[in-house]
Write a structure and sequence with these properties.
By secondary structure, the protein is mostly beta strands. Helices cover 0% and strands 39% of the residues.
Length: 401
């Protein structure tokens, strides 16, 4: 389903316009260098920002952009939160209209590689209602587009204990879990505010970081919808506590009394991301403990612990390790760091830290609450930001230097 693009509305308060505006052609890339911090003399991937990417309809405004995924066609998908926009952001959508701009963009937007809107949809009308409860998350969080051309969405708002699956045009396919129902870390049928998703085509399992109410990893068999594997930190049983009450953004920062433990035998209470490399290694962001835990999918399907990667371990506040991505040949591992506004670059096999790019800020190549990252087949990096960041950026790959 393709929603028609909004058109500019002329307001009565501008019945006598002072001037007529014309739009300039901005199709040529506007490349801005990204601040780069090499850790050693070894070469590392380098990037600039295309400040002209993407192109949105004139009246669309993005809220917090929580989800990001690049499909096999190099189309860029984002998941954003219209509910994060306030009344002064959306004057065009107000009744009566109060300003020339703007209206909330749809939740799900697919961009072509050139940054043009190809598809846009989302909201309660796209999800089923079960026992009187609509299954669209009240606060969307994670997004993944699988090799079978379907889209997975997770949420971390109140009662958002569901991962839902849609076609490219937004047609509902199936879901795991159910809004309003959660039963703890050991349960094989329910979820607890899942954060991120990955589909493993070899195992035919949907792997979920179930990490805002629960604090675990879980994979579901796509056929019987029952949990095939459940695990916690270091591959052990997830025996830690679940969050009491609903999560809200005021709980995003680390309580000082709790502290950070990069060797904690348990996951912290924000298990934030999951991604899987072609060799079967599964990367999990334990944001509370400033680390990425790496697991191996063995030939028999079992998941075992491999490595504990510390990411800026002394970081406080909202923590580091929010998302991971790989270079196209999987030589390099990229780790998004929310608190420090950086992307850490590692040699993936040895986990040698090569350096970092970016910094906190609001200009191109800078980040405010850096949330999600992914790469296309040319090695370009894409990033999204939440809180007051509210944008997607394209970092153009310029080689390994």
């Amino acid at each position: 389903m393709h929603r028609a693009l909004s058109t500019l509305v002329v307001y009565s308060l501008l019945s006598t316009p002072l001037f007529a505006a014309t739009k300039e052609d901005t199709t040529s890339p506007a490349l801005v260098p990204v601040e780069t911090y090499p850790n050693a003399s070894a070469p590392m991937p380098r990037f600039s920002v295309d400040a002209s990417w993407p192109s949105l309809p004139d009246t669309w405004l993005l809220g917090q952009v929580s989800g990001l995924s690049i499909d096999k066609y190099d189309h860029v998908w984002i998941l954003q939160r219209p509910n994060s926009l306030g009344k002064f952001d959306t004057g065009l959508a107000a009744t009566p209209q109060t300003a020339l701009c703007c209206e909330p963009a749809p939740h799900v937007i697919r961009f072509t590689p050139q940054g043009k809107v190809a598809t846009a949809w989302g909201g309660a009308s796209y999800a089923p209602t079960i026992e009187g409860v609509n299954q669209w998350p009240v606060n969307v969080h994670g997004l993944y587009v699988d090799p079978n051309d379907s889209v997975w969405i997770a949420g971390n708002g109140e009662d958002d204990h569901v991962v839902a699956n849609f076609s490219f045009d937004g047609t509902f396919i199936k879901q795991f879990g159910e809004r309003g129902k959660t039963a703890g870390n050991a349960d094989k049928a329910t979820l607890g505010n899942p954060s991120d998703i990955f589909y493993d085509p070899n195992a035919d399992e949907v792997v979920i970081s179930d990490g805002y109410i629960n604090a675990r990893m879980v994979s579901f068999d796509t056929k019987d919808k029952k949990a095939a594997h459940i695990w916690g930190a270091y591959g052990n049983k997830p025996t830690g506590p679940t969050r009491e009450g609903a999560f809200d953004q005021s709980q995003a920062a680390q309580p000082q009394a709790q502290g950070v433990d990069v060797e904690n035998p348990l996951f912290g209470n924000i298990v934030h991301c999951v991604n899987q490399a072609s060799d079967g290694l599964i990367y999990v962001c334990d944001r509370r403990n400033n680390r990425v835990q790496i697991f191996k999918r063995e030939k028999n399907g079992d998941v075992v612990f491999e490595h504990n990667l510390e990411v800026a371990g002394a970081t406080g506040g909202v923590g580091s390790a929010t998302d991971v991505a790989f270079s196209p040949d999987e030589t390099y591992l990229y780790v998004a760091d929310m608190m420090n506004g950086r992307i850490w670059i590692y040699e993936r096999e040895s986990l040698t830290l090569l350096g970092s790019i970016g910094r906190n800020g609001r200009y191109p190549g800078q980040f405010t609450w850096l949330h999600s990252i992914d790469t296309d087949s040319d090695g370009n990096l894409y990033t999204t930001e939440v809180n007051t960041g509210r944008r997607v950026q394209k970092l153009v790959f310029e080689g390994v230097k």
